[in-house]
Design a protein that fits this description.
Recoverin, domain 1; mainly alpha; about 240 residues; TPP/p25; cytoplasm; Tubulin polymerization promoting protein; two-stranded antiparallel sheet; tubulin binding; elongated; about 45% helix
Protein backbone atom coordinates (compact mmCIF):
# COMPACT_ATOMS: atom_id res chain seq x y z
CA UNK A 1 0.00 0.00 0.00
CA UNK A 2 2.89 2.36 0.78
CA UNK A 3 4.33 1.87 -2.75
CA UNK A 4 0.98 2.76 -4.36
CA UNK A 5 0.72 5.94 -2.28
CA UNK A 6 4.26 6.96 -3.27
CA UNK A 7 3.45 6.46 -6.97
CA UNK A 8 0.26 8.53 -6.65
CA UNK A 9 2.14 11.32 -4.90
CA UNK A 10 4.86 11.33 -7.58
CA UNK A 11 2.19 11.54 -10.32
CA UNK A 12 0.54 14.49 -8.57
CA UNK A 13 3.89 16.29 -8.38
CA UNK A 14 4.59 15.69 -12.08
CA UNK A 15 1.08 16.83 -12.98
CA UNK A 16 1.52 20.00 -10.98
CA UNK A 17 4.75 20.80 -12.84
CA UNK A 18 3.29 19.94 -16.28
CA UNK A 19 -0.48 20.65 -16.36
CA UNK A 20 -0.91 19.21 -19.88
CA UNK A 21 0.68 15.94 -18.96
CA UNK A 22 -2.48 14.40 -17.58
CA UNK A 23 -4.81 15.69 -20.30
CA UNK A 24 -3.22 13.90 -23.27
CA UNK A 25 -1.16 10.73 -23.26
CA UNK A 26 2.38 10.94 -24.59
CA UNK A 27 3.06 9.20 -27.89
CA UNK A 28 6.32 7.68 -29.01
CA UNK A 29 8.61 9.74 -31.24
CA UNK A 30 8.13 7.38 -34.17
CA UNK A 31 4.35 7.93 -34.22
CA UNK A 32 4.82 11.71 -34.23
CA UNK A 33 7.20 11.44 -37.20
CA UNK A 34 4.66 9.36 -39.11
CA UNK A 35 1.98 11.97 -38.51
CA UNK A 36 4.19 14.78 -39.82
CA UNK A 37 5.13 12.77 -42.91
CA UNK A 38 1.52 11.94 -43.76
CA UNK A 39 0.54 15.57 -43.25
CA UNK A 40 3.30 16.74 -45.65
CA UNK A 41 2.28 14.28 -48.36
CA UNK A 42 -1.32 15.38 -47.96
CA UNK A 43 -0.40 19.07 -48.31
CA UNK A 44 1.80 18.39 -51.36
CA UNK A 45 -1.01 16.58 -53.10
CA UNK A 46 -3.20 19.66 -52.57
CA UNK A 47 -0.52 21.98 -54.03
CA UNK A 48 0.53 23.53 -50.71
CA UNK A 49 3.47 23.03 -48.38
CA UNK A 50 3.56 22.73 -44.59
CA UNK A 51 3.90 26.05 -42.81
CA UNK A 52 2.49 28.26 -45.58
CA UNK A 53 0.86 28.46 -48.96
CA UNK A 54 2.91 26.71 -51.62
CA UNK A 55 3.16 27.56 -55.30
CA UNK A 56 1.65 25.26 -57.89
CA UNK A 57 3.76 23.78 -60.63
CA UNK A 58 4.25 26.20 -63.60
CA UNK A 59 2.01 25.55 -66.55
CA UNK A 60 3.77 25.33 -69.90
CA UNK A 61 2.57 27.96 -72.35
CA UNK A 62 2.03 26.73 -75.88
CA UNK A 63 3.09 28.66 -78.96
CA UNK A 64 -0.55 29.32 -79.78
CA UNK A 65 -1.26 30.79 -76.35
CA UNK A 66 1.89 32.90 -76.54
CA UNK A 67 0.70 34.43 -79.81
CA UNK A 68 -2.72 35.00 -78.23
CA UNK A 69 -1.09 36.98 -75.41
CA UNK A 70 1.04 39.05 -77.80
CA UNK A 71 -2.01 40.17 -79.76
CA UNK A 72 -4.05 40.62 -76.56
CA UNK A 73 -1.65 43.26 -75.17
CA UNK A 74 -0.98 44.95 -78.51
CA UNK A 75 -1.71 48.68 -78.29
CA UNK A 76 -2.98 48.47 -74.69
CA UNK A 77 -0.54 48.99 -71.83
CA UNK A 78 -3.19 47.98 -69.26
CA UNK A 79 -4.00 44.64 -70.89
CA UNK A 80 -3.13 41.46 -68.97
CA UNK A 81 -2.90 39.17 -71.98
CA UNK A 82 -5.71 36.92 -70.77
CA UNK A 83 -8.47 38.42 -72.92
CA UNK A 84 -8.59 39.49 -76.56
CA UNK A 85 -10.89 42.26 -77.77
CA UNK A 86 -12.50 42.41 -81.19
CA UNK A 87 -10.08 44.85 -82.82
CA UNK A 88 -7.00 42.78 -82.05
CA UNK A 89 -8.86 39.59 -82.93
CA UNK A 90 -9.42 40.96 -86.43
CA UNK A 91 -5.78 42.06 -86.61
CA UNK A 92 -4.61 38.59 -85.60
CA UNK A 93 -6.67 36.95 -88.32
CA UNK A 94 -5.36 39.46 -90.87
CA UNK A 95 -1.68 39.42 -89.88
CA UNK A 96 -1.52 35.63 -89.60
CA UNK A 97 -3.21 34.96 -92.95
CA UNK A 98 -6.44 33.48 -91.61
CA UNK A 99 -8.35 36.00 -93.71
CA UNK A 100 -7.83 35.09 -97.36
CA UNK A 101 -10.58 37.20 -98.93
CA UNK A 102 -12.16 34.11 -100.43
CA UNK A 103 -13.22 31.50 -97.88
CA UNK A 104 -12.65 33.77 -94.88
CA UNK A 105 -13.42 37.48 -94.97
CA UNK A 106 -13.37 40.21 -92.35
CA UNK A 107 -17.14 39.85 -92.00
CA UNK A 108 -16.78 36.14 -91.22
CA UNK A 109 -14.22 36.96 -88.52
CA UNK A 110 -16.54 39.51 -86.88
CA UNK A 111 -19.49 37.12 -86.94
CA UNK A 112 -17.53 34.31 -85.29
CA UNK A 113 -16.24 36.67 -82.63
CA UNK A 114 -19.77 37.77 -81.72
CA UNK A 115 -20.87 34.15 -81.68
CA UNK A 116 -18.30 32.78 -79.23
CA UNK A 117 -18.04 35.68 -76.77
CA UNK A 118 -20.36 36.13 -73.82
CA UNK A 119 -23.21 38.57 -74.33
CA UNK A 120 -22.09 40.95 -71.61
CA UNK A 121 -18.40 40.91 -72.65
CA UNK A 122 -16.44 42.66 -75.35
CA UNK A 123 -13.52 40.25 -75.18
CA UNK A 124 -12.88 36.52 -75.54
CA UNK A 125 -10.75 34.21 -73.41
CA UNK A 126 -8.16 31.78 -74.75
CA UNK A 127 -10.65 28.88 -74.65
CA UNK A 128 -13.19 30.94 -76.59
CA UNK A 129 -10.39 31.93 -78.93
CA UNK A 130 -9.75 28.28 -79.81
CA UNK A 131 -13.47 27.72 -80.39
CA UNK A 132 -13.54 30.69 -82.77
CA UNK A 133 -10.53 29.35 -84.67
CA UNK A 134 -12.27 26.01 -84.99
CA UNK A 135 -15.27 27.72 -86.59
CA UNK A 136 -13.04 29.51 -89.10
CA UNK A 137 -10.90 26.43 -89.75
CA UNK A 138 -13.85 24.33 -90.92
CA UNK A 139 -14.85 27.08 -93.29
CA UNK A 140 -11.33 27.78 -94.55
CA UNK A 141 -10.32 24.14 -95.11
CA UNK A 142 -13.51 22.49 -96.28
CA UNK A 143 -11.73 19.46 -97.74
CA UNK A 144 -10.20 18.45 -94.38
CA UNK A 145 -11.57 17.01 -91.19
CA UNK A 146 -12.26 19.21 -88.18
CA UNK A 147 -9.06 18.34 -86.30
CA UNK A 148 -6.90 18.66 -89.40
CA UNK A 149 -8.43 22.01 -90.26
CA UNK A 150 -7.86 23.32 -86.73
CA UNK A 151 -4.23 22.15 -86.83
CA UNK A 152 -3.66 24.05 -90.08
CA UNK A 153 -5.10 27.27 -88.65
CA UNK A 154 -3.08 26.86 -85.45
CA UNK A 155 0.10 26.62 -87.55
CA UNK A 156 -0.72 29.97 -89.17
CA UNK A 157 -0.84 31.66 -85.76
CA UNK A 158 1.78 29.86 -83.67
CA UNK A 159 4.84 31.99 -82.96
CA UNK A 160 3.44 35.07 -84.73
CA UNK A 161 3.43 38.64 -83.41
CA UNK A 162 1.45 41.74 -84.43
CA UNK A 163 2.76 43.50 -87.52
CA UNK A 164 3.65 47.10 -86.68
CA UNK A 165 2.11 49.45 -89.23
CA UNK A 166 3.49 52.82 -90.28
CA UNK A 167 7.10 51.75 -90.81
CA UNK A 168 8.74 53.84 -93.54
CA UNK A 169 10.17 51.77 -96.35
CA UNK A 170 12.45 52.86 -99.17
CA UNK A 171 10.57 52.81 -102.42
CA UNK A 172 12.53 52.68 -105.68
CA UNK A 173 10.98 54.80 -108.38
CA UNK A 174 12.30 56.24 -111.67
CA UNK A 175 11.66 59.79 -110.48
CA UNK A 176 13.70 59.40 -107.31
CA UNK A 177 16.51 57.64 -109.18
CA UNK A 178 16.70 60.45 -111.76
CA UNK A 179 16.84 63.15 -109.11
CA UNK A 180 19.64 61.41 -107.18
CA UNK A 181 21.79 60.48 -110.19
CA UNK A 182 24.70 62.97 -110.07
CA UNK A 183 25.93 62.01 -113.56
CA UNK A 184 22.88 63.73 -115.04
CA UNK A 185 23.34 67.01 -113.17
CA UNK A 186 24.20 70.09 -115.22
CA UNK A 187 25.40 73.64 -114.58
CA UNK A 188 26.31 74.69 -111.06
CA UNK A 189 24.77 71.53 -109.60
CA UNK A 190 27.27 69.38 -111.46
CA UNK A 191 30.19 71.34 -110.01
CA UNK A 192 29.21 70.31 -106.48
CA UNK A 193 30.12 66.64 -107.10
CA UNK A 194 33.27 64.89 -108.30
CA UNK A 195 33.52 62.16 -110.92
CA UNK A 196 32.57 59.43 -108.42
CA UNK A 197 29.36 61.23 -107.38
CA UNK A 198 30.72 62.29 -104.01
CA UNK A 199 30.05 65.86 -102.84
CA UNK A 200 32.95 68.29 -102.80
CA UNK A 201 31.74 70.05 -99.69
CA UNK A 202 32.62 73.75 -99.39
CA UNK A 203 34.64 73.64 -102.61
CA UNK A 204 31.47 72.81 -104.51
CA UNK A 205 29.48 75.68 -103.01
CA UNK A 206 31.94 78.59 -102.63
CA UNK A 207 34.35 80.11 -105.16
CA UNK A 208 37.78 79.66 -103.58
CA UNK A 209 40.58 81.92 -104.88
CA UNK A 210 43.44 79.92 -106.35
CA UNK A 211 46.80 81.42 -105.27
CA UNK A 212 49.00 78.65 -106.67
CA UNK A 213 50.06 80.74 -109.68
CA UNK A 214 48.68 78.28 -112.22
CA UNK A 215 45.90 79.08 -114.65
CA UNK A 216 42.60 77.40 -113.98
CA UNK A 217 42.21 74.05 -115.63
CA UNK A 218 45.95 73.37 -115.89
CA UNK A 219 46.33 69.58 -115.55
CA UNK A 220 50.04 69.43 -114.67
CA UNK A 221 49.83 71.61 -111.59
CA UNK A 222 52.61 70.80 -109.11
CA UNK A 223 54.68 68.78 -111.58
CA UNK A 224 57.32 71.49 -112.28
CA UNK A 225 59.06 71.07 -108.91
CA UNK A 226 59.25 67.33 -109.45
CA UNK A 227 60.86 67.75 -112.86
CA UNK A 228 63.50 70.12 -111.53
CA UNK A 229 64.51 67.76 -108.73
CA UNK A 230 64.80 64.82 -111.14
CA UNK A 231 66.81 66.61 -113.84
CA UNK A 232 70.66 66.03 -113.70
CA UNK A 233 72.83 68.89 -112.45
CA UNK A 234 75.13 70.34 -115.13
CA UNK A 235 78.86 69.78 -114.44
CA UNK A 236 81.13 72.86 -114.52
CA UNK A 237 83.57 73.12 -117.43
Amino acid sequence: MADNKDNINDFKVQTAKHPNLGSAPLRPHTEQSKDRTSKRFSSESNGTSEGGVGSSTPVEVTALEESFRRFAIHGDTRATGKELHGKNWSKLCKDCGVIDGKNITLTDVDIVFSKVKKKSCRTITFDEFKVALGELARKKYKDKSGEEAEAEVFKLIEGKSPIIAGVTRAVASPTVSRLTDTTKFTGSHKERFDDTGRGKGKAGRVDIVDTSGYVSGYKHQGSYEKKVTKSPIAKPM
